[in-house]
Amino acid sequence: MDFYPWLVVAHVLGAFGFVAGHGVSMFAAFRLRSERDPGRVTALLDLSGASLGVVYVSLLVLLAAGIAAGFVGGHWGSLWIWTSIAILVAVIALMYVLATPYYGNIRRAVGQKVYGDKKEAPPPEPLPAGELAMLLDTSRPYLLAAIGGIGLAAIIGLMFLKPF
Asked: Looking at the predicted structure, is the pLDDT value of residue 131 above 90?
């Protein structure tokens, strides 16, 4: 039995879940730009955060099936697969560096703790409405969407076209 097509299907399903989970966060990011009510901002941040489980599980499926398909399909000697991995790593790193502090600052602005805050420490004091508005009124979501979208398009192109 040829497992390669099944591995590719699993890889694509993992990629779909990864993108779908990010779609929730992307929608929330764009909606945050027009919100000023701290309760609604908190709800959007919580919605975005809730999608991360899907993102991480899907990333594991995507990676495991993609790596296995690379071996079964004999693609590890091809430059396209290494370029795809490099793009994925670069996009993940850029997204982490650009998104984590941005969302952390917004979370703190509405009085939420963020990863890395001491458990016993009290929640941060919410910022005044004007300062929260300045944090929310940014083009950061567009930058993040552009990085993710361009990276995804490049990886899809490499995966289907296998140009080198």
From this structure: yes
